[in-house]
Amino acid sequence: MYKTGDQDAIEIASLVKAFAAGKAREPIEWDWQTRLKNLFGIETEAQQVYREAYNSPYPHNLTIRTHSNLSRFIEDRLNLLERNGLWGLLFVFLSLLVFLNWRVAFWVMMGLVVSVAGSIVMMQLLGATLNLISMFGLIVVLGLIVDDAIVVSENVYARVEAGEPPRVAAVRGAQEVTWPVIIAVTTTIAAFAPLLFVEGRIGDFMGVLPVVVMCALSVSLLEALSILPAHLAKSLKPIRNGGDHNKGRARPFLARLVNSFRGAEAHVVKDVLGAWYERLLRLAIAYRYVVIAAVVSLMLLAVGLIHGGHVPFVLIQKMDSETVLANLDMPIGTPAARTLEAIEQVEHAVLEDPDVQSIWTVVGAQLDAD
User: Fold this and answer.
1) Which CATH class is domain 71-245?
2) Which of 117, 179, 235, 251 fits as disulfide partner to 103, beta carbons 3.0 to 4.6 Å?
3) CATH 1.20.1640.10 region(s) of the chain?
4) Residue 358: CB partners within 8 Å, gap ≥ 6?
């Protein structure tokens, strides 16, 4: 079975698998979304198909099995996007929780959700579909769409720590880094924009990738410069006399724990890392011509390795096929029973390999490998 138009390939595959399992009267394991709907008394379409097929099995010895489920590639890519998104949310929240505070971490984390949702809406408006390439673009851009939000939130929080009111810090902090953030996002967009002008089959294949990246980065920029400062202005609390705004509201033990953690963080960042960075920076400035020459040499070396063939360039890597196609040619006039017997011998030999999942044979015709 094949999908047509805007049909959902994953939904069609789930219906086919439910139908085959029902006809064979085999148990089927439903996903967590289906089980969640069942808790509210909702029966999915796949469960209805399974129930109807289970109640009307095929007569005699006729059986039905699924073969070549290509929708699993789309489902695997969706699962990968979901896992990367969840891990990205977790790492962003924990990282900002360690170095800033939970309010900043929460709103930056929500900015990631808004950016992904907004990019999908823009894709819909531009006529782009959610397929393997567009999902790959979302996976690539997941690590980029929080950079501008982190820069803005850190600058706002630094101003709040310096004693500015949250509203003033949000406005001035966002204005201070507006152009650096815009330039950073624009350069990333410019890196993907040339893919829009690729022609031919490769252009048709890769054309949606820059659209997805540009949509996601544009939404993230809008969110970081407008929505995020508004949230920070409302949620951040003023810090007076250099003290922590959690004091007075937290229990003494929790307050001591937070203060000790902040002290350790300040020691590591400012005293240890700051001292090493200052020494390295002074050394680089003192020997600036040596540093520039080393950077230029590394760039020339990288270009030379590529043009010299030491680092091969492959646009699309060749992947091993999961399907093996074999033709059995019999002499002209061979009876069909003899051909079927030979086919069965081939099937038995192939099934001895544990990696083989299923076999599909056609007798009396020729399959074209192209």
Assistant:
1) mainly alpha
2) 235
3) 71-245
4) 65, 67, 68
Instruction: Name the nearest CA neighbour of 170 among 184, 183, 158, 182.
Output: 158
Please, are residues 126 and 207 in contact by the beta-carbon 8 Å criterion? Answer: no
Which percentage of the chain shows pLDDT scores above 70? 85
Q: What would you report as the CA-atom Rg of the chain, rounded to the nearest whole angstrom?
A: 30
CB 71: neighbour CB atoms within 10 A? 19
pLDDT(124) > 60: yes
The more confident residue out of 300 and 94 is: 300
Residue 314 contacts residue 356 (beta carbons within 8 Å)? no
- Percentage with pLDDT > 90 across the chain: 6
Of 10-19, 62-71, 271-280, which has the strongest mean pLDDT?
A: 271-280
